[in-house]
Amino acid sequence: MARVFVYGTLKKGQPNYQYMINTAKGLAKFQGRGRTVEKYPLVIAGKYNIPYMLNIPGTGHHVAGEIYSVDDQMLQFLDEFEGCPDMYQRTLMRIEVMEWEGKGSAGERRADAEGIVECFVYSTMTYPPEWVGLPYHDSYDSSGKHGLAYVLRESR
């Protein structure tokens, strides 16, 4: 199992969350909520209003999201879903645990005690330069006050 941190449309209550709970795609177990240890720019960009975390450490905000434990099948699905490695790149990032659900295994207890876990995150280094000038967000909600509702793939 691998840890994945999601900050956009795959979070609970967001447009693509159904993929995280679709066991035909693999297993994803919610572990808790967290935020990036380093600051990153989280922007909403493109004609489909897609959230992107730009891989520019030290710029932007501590980005909030959810931590999942996923199996190899789900990780492979997420790679394809996120257009990895062209649109997004899957990298390891340090995530500060804000709220922890599972306390089952020793690894989970150790992470909870330290307060920091390493998770795979889909961020991007392949973006148009003008995206750096977009507003930065600390968390994402498709129906947020930004007014940039995400356009579902089936509606494109």
Automatic annotation (TrEMBL):
It catalyses: epsilon-(gamma-L-glutamyl)-L-lysine = 5-oxo-L-proline + L-lysine. Its EC number is 4.3.2.8. The keyword Lyase applies. InterPro entries: AIG2-like_dom (IPR009288), GGACT (IPR039126), GGCT-like (IPR013024), GGCT-like_sf (IPR036568). Keywords: Lyase. It is an enzyme of class 4 (lyase). One of its GO terms (molecular function) is gamma-glutamylaminecyclotransferase activity. It holds the Pfam family GGACT. GO terms for cellular component: cytosol. The active site is at 82 (proton acceptor). Residues 4-122 form the Gamma-glutamylcyclotransferase AIG2-like domain. CDD domains: GGCT_like (cd06661). One of its GO terms (biological process) is modified amino acid catabolic process. Gene3D superfamilies: Gamma-glutamyl cyclotransferase-like (3.10.490.10). Belongs to the gamma-glutamylcyclotransferase family. Catalyzes the formation of 5-oxo-L-proline from L-gamma-glutamyl-L-epsilon-lysine. This is Gamma-glutamylaminecyclotransferase. It comes from Antrostomus carolinensis.
